Task: inverse folding
């Protein structure tokens, strides 16, 4: 068995790894690079292998940095089978179509400016038709714990990674002598989450390829973060303002809805509190959650099957149409508005910030990761003034940053997962280089690798 690395090498985006076993070529994830403009440009680079030579693509989960380049892979000749869990398949559909739409918008925007500046037009990285073509390659769906046969002697088993709905760690095993196996962690979640199960530990393997996103820190306790969320909302309502929560459409939006419902049911939040989920993608993702209770924790699944919907709040409104979204600008106070994008780089949340940032009585609550250079990061870092739609907006609203809602395992959880597997060799991916170095120094009794793009080694 041979593994090579084609992304997420000493960085957190662009996951893409290749396994060659017997005469089959198996790709694990095909994600988008995200962050700086250099990384954006890397998305158009060659893959480092021939897409037409790949037999199978196994997808760990539906985040863009794991599935975002699939339409491009298909556009460049991939004709194999894409295998993932049923929930990931539905979520990846949303994510790839949304990404295609954004690429089309960017290309149009660029074309308008290029025309004026005499520059040449740029084609979108891929378009909606490419995303639909990619959907045609999704084949069998994987059930957690049940091997999917790639050949009679080569199989892949998906284990619940507890990161987002449908997420998986994948163990590939070649049963022909000599028996060899490798585990790809995918992104690992934290234990004790609202809806999902805790991450599962797969059976051991010769090599473990694992993520290290938060390999250098320990998360704050979740209950404290939930308490901070309730306090910030109650405090804002007492002042008469609105609460704006910039939200990622997958998982985070559903978790926040879940905690708002719990807050109302336990009397810690006002019963009649209006909540607006102003994100078509988050609304669609919430529907996908409802279709996949098989991914819920046993407790949540039992409640759901008893007719209790984890996302059902008395005052919840879903806004899909732009007109309904614009109507939210008229809200005087007393409402919670959740909208994307999570890092405020685009999307409807920017309109809500325009209408609420200058108000002393309103609040903005950040509940997710904010990369350097994004509007969310600028606000968190204490900007007194920001520009939105060409208008200079003073920041008078109260800002809260609540860090405990992470969908990623922290250092201690990553170490415990690794300790349970005891692999002879460990490959670190999906982490910043300094974090990776620190994490590597905590690992015992294993040979550690930190590959660069294009590196390969034999299992
Ligand atoms: Zn992820």
Result:
């Amino acid at each position: 068995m041979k593994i090579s690395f084609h992304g997420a090498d000493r960085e957190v985006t662009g996951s893409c790894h290749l396994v060659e076993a017997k005469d089959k070529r198996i790709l694990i994830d095909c994600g988008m690079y995200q962050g700086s403009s250099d990384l954006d440009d890397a998305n158009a680079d060659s893959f480092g292998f021939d897409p037409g030579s790949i037999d199978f693509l196994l997808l760990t989960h539906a985040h863009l940095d794991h599935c975002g380049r699939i339409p491009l892979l298909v556009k460049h000749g991939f004709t194999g089978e894409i295998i993932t869990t049923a929930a990931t398949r539905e979520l990846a559909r949303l994510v790839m179509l949304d990404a295609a739409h954004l690429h089309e918008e960017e290309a149009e925007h660029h074309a308008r400016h290029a025309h004026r500046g005499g520059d040449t037009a740029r084609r979108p990285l891929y378009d909606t038709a490419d995303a639909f073509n990619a959907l045609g390659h999704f084949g069998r769906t994987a059930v957690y714990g049940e091997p999917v046969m790639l050949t009679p002697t080569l199989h892949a088993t998906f284990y619940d990674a507890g990161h987002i709905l449908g997420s998986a760690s994948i163990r590939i095993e070649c049963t022909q002598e000599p028996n060899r196996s490798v585990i790809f962690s995918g992104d690992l979640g934290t234990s004790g989450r609202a809806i999902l199960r805790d991450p599962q530990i797969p059976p051991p393997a010769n090599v473990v390829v694992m993520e290290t996103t938060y390999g250098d820190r320990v998360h704050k306790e979740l209950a404290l973060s939930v308490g901070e969320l309730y306090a910030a909302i109650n405090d804002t309502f007492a002042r008469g303002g609105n609460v704006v929560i910039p939200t990622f459409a997958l998982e985070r939006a559903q978790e926040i809805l879940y905690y708002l419902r719990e807050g109302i049911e336990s009397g810690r939040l006002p019963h009649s509190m209006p909540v607006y989920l102003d994100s078509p993608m988050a609304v669609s993702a919430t529907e996908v959650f409802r279709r996949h209770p098989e991914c819920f924790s046993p407790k949540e699944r039992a409640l759901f099957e008893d007719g209790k919907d984890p996302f059902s709040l008395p005052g919840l409104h879903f806004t899909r149409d732009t007109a309904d979204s614009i109507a939210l600008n008229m809200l005087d106070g007393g409402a919670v508005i959740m909208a994307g994008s999570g890092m405020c780089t685009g999307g409807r949340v920017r309109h809500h910030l325009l209408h609420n940032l200058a108000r002393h009585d309103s609040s903005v609550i950040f509940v997710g990761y904010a990369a350097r250079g994004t509007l969310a990061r600028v606000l968190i870092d204490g900007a007194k003034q920001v520009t939105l739609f060409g208008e200079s907006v003073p920041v008078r609203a109260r800002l809260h940053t609540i860090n405990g809602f992470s969908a990623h395992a922290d250092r201690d959880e990553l170490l415990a997962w690794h300790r349970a597997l005891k692999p002879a060799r460990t490959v670190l991916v999906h982490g910043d280089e300094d974090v990776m170095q620190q994490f590597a120094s905590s690992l015992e009794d294993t040979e550690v690798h930190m590959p660069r793009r294009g590196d390969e080694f034999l299992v």
